[in-house]
Amino acid sequence: MSEVEVFWHEHAVSRAEKEKLNGNKGCVLWFTGLSGSGKSTVANVVDHKLHELGKHSFVLDGDNVRHNLNASPKMLAEKHSEEFAKRFGLGFSAQDREENIRRIGAVAKLFADSGTIAITAFISPYRVDRDSVRAMTDGDFFEIYVATPIEVCEQRDPKGLYKKARAGEIKGFTGIDDPYEAPLNPELTIDASKVTANELGDQVIAFLQEKGII
Description:
This protein is α/β, with parallel strands linked by helices.
């Protein structure tokens, strides 16, 4: 079967018109950091603060996305055939993590194109994957490094994952037996071990104001 040619369709309502209606520019806020660093907490604080300001935003959280769009083969097999689950399910291998980030990047770009501030919270451990999303989003990408030290992340360990990784019950865990490649030139660096999530949220809001996003 020959490949079907796919064309890009321009939208009748322009991005600029949508941004004017929303009262903010579209962009991608990409929170990256170790498990337990506070990514999701700060991302949701920022979302609430933007809502209070009357801005349009949406949070794409790593755990939530793994329940549907990027579900594991086991989870997909509960609702679909084993063949379907094997083909489209994503585990946690380097290849699967790469595809996980690619899919999220594509979705985040669609949100940005709609004049929405897409807020993502993913470990996204590999620089090359984050850089690929940056390239995909045509200058709308802001990398926010949640640089909470691993010692603090382990002390928190809200899901008990570090404990299991140290015990050898989880293999390929980021920061323990799999690498985390910290951003080299993030647009913003925050540390959730030093100030509250609310204060960090204010830092992000100030950053967005400085960049003219809101």
